[in-house]
Structures are given as C-alpha cells and as structure tokens.
C-alpha cells in the first residue's frame, strides 16, 4: 500500500528516493525527513514539493526522479531513469516545462521603441496609419534599419551605440543612393509603382527623415537637421513630385508626406525660406482638403512672402522710386489676402490653433518690424494691434502646454510657435512661460537650446531697456 512507501529528498542533489517502511514520517540518520505516508504528504507540503506516490512495483525497482532544484532549466526534459536495467518495459515519465520566452529580436525591439517614440511625436495629431509601411523596408541592407536602431538607442540612453548606428545609416544611405539613383530619385511627376523601386524611394524618405530627427535630438545647432531635411527629405519629395504624394491613404509615399509636410512648413518659416510646398503644382494637389491643408497652405505662402518682402526692404532706394511704391502695394495686398485667409481658416484641432496663432503674428511681423519704411512709402500694411498679438501669444502658450502634457503632438512642432511668442514676450512673466516650455522641449530635442539662446539674448536687451526707461535714464 502507499502508506508503506517512504520518500526521502537528498539535500544537495535534490534527488527523491523511495523505500518501503511502516509508520509515520521519521528523520533518517543523514538528517533527511522521510515521507509521512499520508496523501498528500505532510512533510512534502511543508517543503513545498510535489509528492508523487509510485506503484509498489516501481518502488521495488528503485526508480529515481531527478528534480534539479535550484537550477534554471529551459526546454530540457525530465525523465525517470532506471539504475537496474535500461531495457525495462515501463515507459519513462517525461515532464516538459513551458518554453522560456525567446530573447527579443533587435529589429523588433527597435521598431517597438520607435513606435513608442513616434506616438509621442506625431506631426499631424492624427492616427499613425504609416506604421505598417516600415517593417517590409527593414532588410539587413536597408539604411532605414540602422537609422531605426540609432533612434532606439537614444531612447535607451545609449549614446555610443546610437552614434555608431547613425554612422552606419549614413554609409548605407550613400550606398543606396549611389547604386540605385534611378529608383531613389525618379523623374519629377512620375507615378510610384508598387515595386522594388517604390520601396527604395520610401526607404530613402524615411531614412533621411529619421536621421534628421536624430540630429535634432543630439545637435543644438540644427545644422545636421537642415542637411537631412532640406537636402535629403525635401529634395526626394520634390523629385517624386506632387502626383506621387497625392494618394494620402493608399500609398506609402503619400502616408509619409502627410507626416512631414507640417514639419517642412514650419522649417520654412523658422528659417525665412521658400518651401517647395508653396509652388502651384503642390498647392493644387493639397489645397483645402482639410483644415490642416488650409492652414499649411497659408504658412508656406507667408514664408515666401517674407523672403520677397525682406529682399524688397533691403534694396529699397531713398527716396523710393515709382517701381518701389508699386512693389510695396503688391506686397501689402498679398499680405492682406493672407490675413483674410488666416481669419477664415478653421482652427479646431490643437495643431491648427497653434499654427494659426503663430502665423498671424508672423505675418504681422513681416510688416511691423519695418514699419517706418512702409510709412515712408505711404502704404497701409496688415499689421495686428498689440492686444491681438498678446491674445495670440496666450493661445500659443496654452496650446503648447496642453500638447506637452498630453504628448499628442511632437514637441518639434512647438518650436516655431514658441519662437514667435518669445519674440513678442515683453514682460518677465511672459518670458518665463516661454522659457519653461522651450526648456521642456529641449529635454528630448536639444535643438531647442538654440532657440532659447537667441530669445534670452533678445530678452536681456529688452529688459535692460525697460529698466532704463523705468529709472528715467533713457
């Protein structure tokens, strides 16, 4: 009977052995507690062991079960072994543990980290429909793969592996462009077929974009970002043409374009440059389909107007010529048209509210920073009252605070609005608010330090002048 079977566990090897006995549990000469004979075994319960009662025949044969307590076992089987005969007809009892979870695949892990990163860095505030486009592009020879690893290592606070991956991405990107220039830079306006050439184009676009993000996170000057964004992403999009980007939801290139166009528009106004998005062919494809379309269209037109206005003021003759007056009237009329478009633009989303407020101030600044010249020309320009500018600044600060709290937009999209609001911050309280928000942006994107440095110089001079006026010195 089962009560006649004793069970001992070796304290070192963990081996369980059985013997016939009668009576209750006892301590052997070696100090090991025998099985109590009850079911379940009270001694085994105290030791938190599973008590298995074999048949009387099995006990007589001296079968042993090796538990290997204290060892980490993966997919190894535990079998009952016979010390007397290997030809026994009794089948072995096999225990198969659950398989250990596999080590994370580096690429899958990097893609997972990128997904977390991009969730906090949306450039549209809309669902990320493009994520499924990336995994098929991550072949071992793809420059996108090390670019993805570079960003992932930054998320893990591993700067050295991040820089190594960044360098590898640069080398791989150059090789890709050199070996397949026709696929990467097609004839302008050409359609993009679902082919290897299309995959290469999409890979180049995403790689240059991610490398630009890497620069914004590691280089406060922003020079590397300009190189990747202007000479990489923007040039590739121009080469593809607006028709290739028009399929917003059915094309990988179109889905990519939706993510970066706000970034490109903000870049243009930050650097007072003309953007390709302001060209008629691009405006015809994307003008006015959504509220974001309408606002971005005004932004890129304002950046182009700023370039022409700056050139005009710089080359203005004294006294002004008749042609100067005619040009001034044209520039003022264009500004008034853009002002009306801004006031009519829908601004429901957080992104459009930010951009409308910032661009309203930016457009006013196109004229009021050179107001004496316009007055000398006798031309009325569409500037904003001080109270309206202050209201727009308050909107920018409130929306930026909300965006940073909810992480619904990339902090990079806050650089342009906060730079505009900072330039109009006249009180210390206003300056502190903008400074704090840009400092928070700089925790992830160090390029914000360049914006802060410039604004702090402006504020220092402004506050010194205010102090002089307050003391009656000025």
List the helices and strands and how they pair.
Layout: E1 5-9, E2 15-20, H1 42-46, H2 56-61, E3 65-66, E4 78-79, E5 94-95, H3 106-119, H4 144-155, H5 159-179, H6 181-184, H7 196-218, H8 223-240, H9 242-245, H10 252-270, H11 280-286, H12 291-314, H13 322-344, H14 350-368, H15 371-377, H16 386-406, H17 415-423, H18 428-442, H19 448-471
Antiparallel strand pairs: 1-2, 2-3, 4-5
Protein name: Zn(2)-C6 fungal-type domain-containing protein
Biased composition (Low complexity): 82-97
Region (Disordered): 82-101
Main traits of this protein?
three-stranded antiparallel beta sheet, 474 residues, mainly alpha, disordered N terminus
The largest β sheet comes out as: 3 strands, antiparallel
**SSE string, helices as H and strands as E:** EEHHEEEHHHHHHHHHHHHHHHHH
Poorly predicted runs are: 1-32, 54-88, 92-98, 182-193
The spatial strand order of the largest sheet comes to 1-2-3
Rg, Cα atoms, Å = 35 Å
Helix count equals 19
Helix content: 55-70%
Strand coverage percent: under 5%
Determine the mean pLDDT: 79
- Helix/strand-derived category reads mainly alpha
Number of strands: 5
Can you tell me the overall shape?
Answer: globular
């Amino acid at each position: 009977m089962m009560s006649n079977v004793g069970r001992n566990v070796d304290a070192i090897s963990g081996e369980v052995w059985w013997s016939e006995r009668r009576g209750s549990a006892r301590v052997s000469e070696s100090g090991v507690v025998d099985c109590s004979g009850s079911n379940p075994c009270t001694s085994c319960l105290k030791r938190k062991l599973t008590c298995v009662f074999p048949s009387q025949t099995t006990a007589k044969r001296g079968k042993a079960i090796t538990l290997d307590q204290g060892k980490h076992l993966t997919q190894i089987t535990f079998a009952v072994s016979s010390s007397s005969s290997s030809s026994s007809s009794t089948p072995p009892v096999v225990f198969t543990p659950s398989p250990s979870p596999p080590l994370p695949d580096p690429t899958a892990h990097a893609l997972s980290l990128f997904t977390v990163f991009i969730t906090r860095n949306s450039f549209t505030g809309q669902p990320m429909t493009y994520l499924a486009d990336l995994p098929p592009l991550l072949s071992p020879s793809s420059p996108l793969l090390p670019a993805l690893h570079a960003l992932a290592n930054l998320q893990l606070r591993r700067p050295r592996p991040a820089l190594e991956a960044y360098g590898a991405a640069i080398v791989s990107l150059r090789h890709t462009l050199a070996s397949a220039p026709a696929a990467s830079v097609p004839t302008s306006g050409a359609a993009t077929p679902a082919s290897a050439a299309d995959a290469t184009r999409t890979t180049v676009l995403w790689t240059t974009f991610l490398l630009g993000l890497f620069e914004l996170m590691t280089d406060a000057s922003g020079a590397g970002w300009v190189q990747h964004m202007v000479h990489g992403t923007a040039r590739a999009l121009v080469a593809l043409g607006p028709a290739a980007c028009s399929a917003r939801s059915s094309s990988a290139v179109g889905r990519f374009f939706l993510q970066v166009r706000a970034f490109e528009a903000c870049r243009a106004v930050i650097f007072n440059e003309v953007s390709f998005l302001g060209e008629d062919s691009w405006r015809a494809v994307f003008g006015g389909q959504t509220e974001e379309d309408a606002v971005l269209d005004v932004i890129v037109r304002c950046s182009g107007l700023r370039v022409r206005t700056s050139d005009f003021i710089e080359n203005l003759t004294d006294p002004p010529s008749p042609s100067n007056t005619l040009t001034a009237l044209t520039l003022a009329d264009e500004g008034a048209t853009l002002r009306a478009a801004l006031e009519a633009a829908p601004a429901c989303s957080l992104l459009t509210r930010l951009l409308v407020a910032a661009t309203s101030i930016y457009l006013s600044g196109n004229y009021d920073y050179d107001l004496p010249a316009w007055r000398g020309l006798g031309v009325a320009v569409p500037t904003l009252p001080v109270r309206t500018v202050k209201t727009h600044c308050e909107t920018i600060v409130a929306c930026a605070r909300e965006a940073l709290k909810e992480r619904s937009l990339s902090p990079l999209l806050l650089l342009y609005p906060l730079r505009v609001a900072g330039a109009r911050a006249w009180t210390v309280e206003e300056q502190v608010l903008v400074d704090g928000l840009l400092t928070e942006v700089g925790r992830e994107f160090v390029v914000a330090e360049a914006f802060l440095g410039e604004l702090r110089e402006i504020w220092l001079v402004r506050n010194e002048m205010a102090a002089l006026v307050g003391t009656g010195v000025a």
